[in-house]
Amino acid sequence: MSTDLIAEARRQTEICNACRYCEGFCSVFPALTRQKAFADGDISHLANLCHNCRGCYYSCQYTEPHEFALNFPAALAEVRQDSWERLAWPQPLARRFHDSGVALGVVAAATFALVFALLQMMKPTSGEGFYAYFSHNAMVALFAPAFLLPLAAVAISLRRYWAETGGTRLRWRNVVGGFRAAANMKNLNGGQGQGCNFEDEDRYTDTRRWLHQAVMYGFLLCFASTSSGTILHYLFDMQAPYSFFSLPKLLGVPGGILLTIGTVGLAWFKTKADPKLGAQRVWGGEMGFIVLLGATGFTGLALYAATGTALVPVMLAVHLGFVLAFFLLLPYSKMVHGFYRLSALMIEDQKQGISK
Amino acid sequence: MRQGKPVHFDQLWDIVVVGGGNAALCAAITAAEAGAKVLILESAPKTYRGGNSRHTRNFRCMHQGPLSVLTGSYGEDEYFDDLLRVTKGKTDEPMARMAIRQSEECLPWMEAHGVRFQPSLSGTLSLSRTNAFFLGGGKALVNAYYNTAADLGVAVAYDAEVTHVHIEGDTFTHVDVRIGGQMQQIQGRAIVLASGGFQSDLEWLTRAWGPAAANFLIRGTPYNRGVVLRDMLDQGAESVGDPTQCHAVAIDGRAPKFDGGIVTRLDCVPFSIVVNRDGDRFYDEGEDVWPKRYAIWGRLVAAQPDQVGYAIIDAKSIDLFMPSVFPPIKADTIEDLGAQMGLDGAKLAQTVGAFNSACQPGTFHPTELDGVATDGVTPAKTNWARPINQPPYYGYQLRPGVTFTYLGLKISDRAQVHTERGPLVNVFAAGEIMAGSILGQGYLAGFGMTIGTVFGRIAGAEAAKYVN
Question: Sorted alphabetically, which SUPFAM superfamilies does this protein's record hold (chain A) (predicted)?
């Protein structure tokens, strides 16, 4: 555990606890008023509860040049980032992609695209649509482990996180509470729906929350699209390609559009926001992740648009390359924040229940 | 931050506003909405803009029924009675009642101009009926007003210290101002003075209060040096308020010299004994609940040798008050605690021993006057007097922290500044620089923001009326 980062966040937390002016912004401040002394796990919990809306920074009377030098969003971002890397499994993969997502994301995607090009040389003799280029069995053989293994790695990390932050056994209402807070992104709304202090400094806007919702729901729609395809394939023996008026397409097309719009918006906002209010070391990695996530959605749409043309094999390789890179990097990239956030929201629901 | 076009200050402004806190901003916004071309001269750099308003947290507001975040109702007479109690009658009743009455329409005005309120903070439930808290505190309010002002075309010069206000006869003509080190003259058709008190000019404070003031901490901005106040008084403006007095509370002695703000407060006194440099107690620590007593402790500590006090508690009391910004000094024996704080440990142990043996049995109740008192020790402690005997022991150093000064400019109910020869036709004042007429003594939480908002709006409207 990075003692320096935790110690700095604790110093700032104690100042915040003596002030409390920011109580109405988000869940972090009411959470910190429950205690006077903060163990390392308490700081990890606050850090993962923070959604980096930055309202507290721009409201703070103690930011530099004041000698208290508060920068609470950055202090928590550093601890949060550290917790994802520290609790990651296996450890050798923990940091690299966070630090430099652009380079490694691109390299990974390119590598996988190449692999796919090679696979196409083993082109199946029969099959329709994508399966004309890449047999269904080969696809499953590649993607099932590429999806399940990273999830297993995340599960291991979350178990450690749960123990570190004093989470207890999940109850149904914690799950509901956590999902509810995530579903409406309550902690990015500034407490009153006015939103963040992100891309426009001390002016509140709710645009970032909307963009994040576009990404989140876009991603979930895409995921649902793939899942529905799997179900149609195995349970109903209905195989791809699917028409536009089919579940996979009706979920996937809007999902891809939302994901593309949302990631473009978030990447643009990231260039306008002050990097000093986040974990600066991983700015590049975060940007790389946004690009990777957006590329999975966009190349999916492009692949669909290319239906029936000679571009299909190339687009298929590119799209599947991005998807594969995305899943493999899931435990070691910004994507993992979703799992930690949700856990923190559920744990916060538990802790609130206890203090009530 | 947003970069507008470079502003050429060298032009004739309709209204020049001196100061950049709540009152100045309310005046600037009101005047700009009336069509005036307004320039704000803020002596602080942008990061420290907003004067003492950046440290505030709420607005005391009259209301007939639930209003925004405020519960119940808070009528004019009750509000005025609260003011009378803290000022001990040192107030200008018509002007105070005007501020109180107008506070009610201020709150919706504030919301309409970007201010956001939040429910009473944890630990301040007693204020949920009377005081509307700002979401994010006073700096968030200040930011909102600067944004609103910018949208209205108000120009702002930071690092702009006004050194002299030129008055010809009964009329303001221009100001001398140092902007970023460069002396300039700026002309205006009217001026609003909202540049605060003089508490950050330590020399002035020492002349007024006495040499002890050199050891005071200033809770707010270092930019309230009273330059404009002095300049106006020198030019014959009439004054209000006791020129020797400041409002001081007991705060953590380790606080920064300036700008420590809210977090430096210490709420442990009622559960403690407080000794001076010599290890002697000097006042009843349990006289009343802390919100009613914190203000007198500034003076009490100021009267002790070296202007310092030491609050001593034990393990029983450490969780009974709001957390402190700096951790307390901690020790397993009173002797060691005294030594760590630079006191004579044996003497401190003797004082604690005498106090402990004077403690009488009773049912301790931390949030009300419980009558658990001492018998046979001087001074007596009349509530919450529990023996200090359960290690670890904790100690906090206390020093006087100055919030504001009382000396100010006399104004009319139209916020016009007065001289012996009558009112100045185009000079208006708002905020702390004129608050002494209403707040002659003591302090009522959230009332400074009320005075600033009410008189800021009046000054802005009257100045705009004059120039239109």
Answer: 4Fe-4S ferredoxins, Respiratory nitrate reductase 1 gamma chain
